[in-house]
Amino acid sequence: MIKPHQSITLYISVLFALFFVACNAEKGISDIPLEFRNRDFQSDSVLSMCLDRLSILAASHTSKDSIPRSWDESKGQIIADPPHVWTVGFYPACLWKAFAASGDSSWKDKALAYLPLLEKQSNNRSTHDLGFMIFLGLGSDQFPDIPESDSLKKVMLQAAESLYSRYNQSIGAIKSYDVANSEQFPVIIDNLINLELLLWAGGTLKDSSFTKAAMRHGEFTQRYFVRKSEGCKSFHKIEFNPSLTEKHQVFAGQGAGSHSVWSRGSAWGIYGFSMLYTYLHEEQFLATASCMADYWLENVPEDGIPYWDFEARQIPNVPRDASAAAIAAAGLLQLATKLPPKEGSKYFFQAEKSLKSLSHPTYFLPEGKPFILDHSTLSIPHKIDVDRPQTMADYYFIEAILRYIAIAPLFKAEPQLP
Predict the structure, then answer these.
(1) Residues 4, 382: contact at Cβ < 8 Å?
(2) What pLDDT, on a 0 to 100 scale, did the predictor assign at position 35?
(3) Which of 67, 91, 336, 366 is surrounded by the fewest CB atoms within 10 Å?
(4) Could you read off the pLDDT of 189-211 as tens digits, one per residue?
(5) Active site residue 104
(6) Secondary structure (DSSP) of 165-189
(7) What is the mean pLDDT of residues 204-219?
(8) Pick from 361, 333, 320, 247: nearest CA to 26
């Protein structure tokens, strides 16, 4: 993930970034019209248009030395990253989802073209992002019947070993990134998503050490990052003292302030705790996912697309974050299936609302463009991909649509006549 340097430098950069946004923000994006949101969500049609945009990106980016992350429309330039950057798994993951949706093996071939690049990162012990990079980038082992499954599984298991090496048993957490000061143990809420790699590996190898590490990190995140006394607001980044865990300092990270609520952090929490419950069936994770989802429902704008931070100054004249909306929608849909339909329906219909809004031309890029969604914000404090398309947003949007198609009959079935 993004690795800010010294705390004073980060503080100054946050202030500058907020000043920059305040001075340069045009009128904020208005809510998607109610008339559009009241229409039925044409999930199959939207999915087809997603694959059309994805095929344009596949034709436009032919290098196998870098992987697309974003797009600068003003320059007509695809922004791509080298293989060690945390975002590299999202574009191959989009290709795997296209294969899952269509059954067209050409999508699989395009995804496998990045295997040599990603395989080298499976031994990378300097990052916690191997779930994003490897588990998603290699298809999350969702295709056990393809000829390449054994080689993909081998790479993912090596990545799980590398991720596990960052687990500190005395703290009960995975270190998010390395710092020079041994008295600092930084953790960010995003790390929840990488736990799926450990949970999958634990189940595959029947090795409880992976599973226990994931569970303890989930409990650690609950304890320190989720503010249940404040309606399940969340922190983004906390630095701990390895020898005295209770001694820690909260940082803004990618949020507007140290105690503000960065919207993508909330989305990671909904998605991550729902995923943990799916694997572990621990009621505490279901309760936390539901609490964070309730905060989202109570605070997200009416059309389901959040501002980049729920407590950003000068709302509504600040950027929205389509990526946070897509991540939250995917998480809400998973959460909805873990509850009785009467309880889960509010999460299903909130996700549907977000997906409808994201399919509106305000966010859904027009035909001929190489990305799917506009108006995502990677990091305002670090001035990276502010109000731009992102492969991260596109991946979670496709995943949410596929989840929606799979479970919609549970929540939208016609009532039976007596």
Answers:
(1) yes
(2) 93
(3) 366
(4) 999 999 999 999 999 999 999 99
(5) no
(6) TTEETTTTEE--B--S-TT-EEEET
(7) 97
(8) 320
Which of 43, 136, 101 minimizes the C-alpha distance to 351?
A: 43
pLDDT band at residue 260 using 50, 70 and 90 as cut-offs: very high
CB atoms within 10 A of CB 181: 9
Entry pTM = 0.93
Position 384 pLDDT exceeds 50: yes
The catalytic residue among 31, 52, 190, 321 is 190
* Cis peptide bond prior to 316, omega within 30° of 0: yes
Among 132, 153, 311, 301, which residue's Cα sits nearest to residue 230? Answer: 311
Residue of 129, 309, 387, 394 with catalytic role: 129
CATH architecture of 44-168+192-235+262-410: Alpha/alpha barrel (1.50)
pLDDT at 247: 72
User: Is 190 a residue of the active site?
Assistant: yes
**Structure tokens given for 27:** 């009128």
Q: What angle do CA 243, 249, 250 make, to 5 degrees?
A: 140
Q: What was the pLDDT predicted at 319?
A: 96
Count the helix, strand and coil residues of the chain and give each as a percent rounded to the nearest 5. Answer: 55, 10, 35
> What is the distance between the alpha carbons of residues 11 and 236, in angstroms, rounded to a whole number?
14
Which pair of tokens denotes residue 200? Answer: 């999958």
